[in-house]
Write a structure and sequence with these properties.
Protein name: HTH tetR-type domain-containing protein
Largest sheet: none
Keywords: DNA-binding, Transcription, Transcription regulation
Organism: Streptomyces lacrimifluminis
Pfam families: TetR_C_31, TetR_N
Number of domains: 2
Strand content: under 5%
Structural class: mainly alpha
Radius of gyration: 19 Å
Order of helices and strands: HHHHHHHHH
InterPro entries: Homeodomain-like_sf, HTH-type_TetR-like_transc_reg, HTH_TetR, Tet_transcr_reg_TetR-rel_C_sf, TetR_C_31
Length: 207
């Protein structure tokens, strides 16, 4: 077999790992199985990533990068704040319905990373990056429309992402198209209300 440079082999292995684990699950994603998916020696995986956790980190980074790109592409350049929030939610929701295996894989990897110290940094980076991008889009939409935010952009972003994660988990576990559409609309309305101050926050005792 002809030699393939590491710079070319790395993205091939990441894609093979995503394809394999999206199909078979994270638990099945051994370096041997992923090497077989691409048709290379197992040693090639270890040479490129060092360990299985190194490969998993690369997969998480790629999935995060893909998700961020989808979010940024869906952000309208000249819409109002409410329209921007609706467009972001709708575009992301399309990816959940059209690419459920990818969202399930990312969910599985996040849970797996909670019990793997070697992946804790990758997990933190995933949430930090998507929160930063969402907060930036919220800020840009507010500045473009002259709307002052009743809560910090990062707080609104975390609320948006928490709600979206919940809807995604429900869709993967117990899909219901009609109920999901209603919940998505209510969720976007809550995000907008939180941003402009119409959503009254209930005091919760400290724990």
């Amino acid at each position: 077999m002809a030699h393939v440079p590491a710079a070319e082999r790395r993205p091939q292995l990441i894609k093979a790992a995503i394809d394999y684990m999206a199909r078979e699950g994270v638990a099945a994603g051994s370096t041997r199985a992923i090497a077989a998916e691409l048709g290379v020696a197992q040693a090639t995986v270890h040479y490129t990533f060092g360990t299985k956790e190194g490969l998993y980190r690369a997969v998480m980074e790629q999935l995060t990068q893909d998700l961020i790109a989808q979010v940024e592409r869906s952000a309208p350049a000249d819409a109002g704040f409410e329209e921007t929030a609706g467009a972001l939610a709708a575009a992301l929701w399309r990816t959940v319905r059209e690419q459920p295996a990818s969202h399930q894989l990312l969910t599985e990897l996040n849970v797996f990373a909670l019990r793997s110290p070697a992946l804790s940094e990758a997990l933190d980076s995933h949430y930090r990056r998507i929160t930063e991008v969402t907060a930036r889009l919220v800020t840009e939409a507010a500045e473009r429309t002259g709307q002052s935010l009743a809560q910090p952009a990062e707080t609104i972003a975390r609320f948006f992402l928490a709600g979206f994660d919940g809807l995604t988990t429900q869709h993967l576990s117990h899909p219901d198209e009609e109920a999901e559409h209603t919940c998505l609309q209510a969720f976007v309305s809550a995000v907008v209300a939180m941003a402009d101050g119409r959503l009254e926050l209930v005091s919760v005792p400290a724990v």
